[in-house]
Design a protein that fits this description.
heterodimer; A: about 60% strand; B: about 120 residues; four-stranded antiparallel beta sheet; globular
Chain lengths: ~110, ~120
């Protein structure tokens, strides 16, 4: 029962173009959605988040869009740079028994071609 | 400043051995999480501490897994009688406070291989 799904295991994009990473979820109780970036042999690094009450959040080259009716969020990176090549994880949080639980997707490997 | 550190970075264990994995969170961080990441998967929640209190251990896969954070800082994840299916990267993360909007800072992980 995967509550957070990233259906594309990999994506290749030309440098300077837009990268769009997608994530679908099933639990309508999620409070926040987050994107993490992971380089090999390192832990995930927080990139950007969005509250469930918003539909867009922007931070520099990174924008996250949330479509609650479709239970879908996406991360846009524009312009894409070779240093953006990494695995991107979508995550969602919900409150349970007085604490918060984080559910991660399986990741999408982004390759930005120079 | 120092981030989250984990040791050892790599651990090879024979099936049946006990292992202990250490996490040093960012100083002053209240929340500490342990995750298990199998190959090709995302991190899966194991357990959560708020200071020294283990508030959620619902993700621990069996009673062979045990975690502690006795003084509210360093945490240890212990796996007894390791099995091959325990092979994974074990990630530790900390956050300053507790809450959905808090940023989690991850350590580099401990890669465990059980032979």
């Amino acid at each position: 029962d995967q509550q957070v799904k990233q259906n594309s295991p990999s994506l290749s994009v030309q440098e300077g173009r837009i990268s769009i990473l997608n994530c679908d979820y099933t639990n309508s109780m999620f409070d926040y959605f987050l994107w993490y970036k992971k380089y090999p042999a390192e832990g995930p690094t927080f990139l950007i988040s969005i509250s469930s009450i918003k539909d867009k959040n922007e931070d520099g080259r990174f924008t996250v869009f949330l479509n609650k009716s479709a239970k879908h969020l996406s991360l846009h990176i524009v312009p894409s740079q070779p240093g953006d090549s990494a695995v991107y994880f979508c995550a969602a949080t919900f409150r349970t028994s007085g604490t918060y639980k984080y559910i991660f997707g399986t990741g999408t490997r982004l390759k930005v071609l120079a | 400043g120092a981030g989250v550190s984990q040791s050892p970075r790599y651990k090879v264990a024979k099936r049946g051995q006990d292992v202990a994995l250490r996490c040093d969170p960012i100083s002053g961080h209240v929340s500490l999480f342990w995750y298990q990441q199998a190959l090709g998967q995302g991190p899966e929640f194991l357990t959560y501490f708020q200071n020294e209190a283990q508030l959620d251990k619902s993700g621990l896969p069996s009673d062979r897994f045990f975690a502690e954070r006795p003084e509210g800082s360093v945490s240890t994840l212990k796996i007894q009688r390791t099995q091959q299916e325990d092979s994974a990267v074990y990630l530790c993360a900390s956050s300053l406070l507790a809450g959905a909007a808090e940023t989690q800072y991850f350590g580099p992980g401990t890669r465990l291989l059980v032979l």
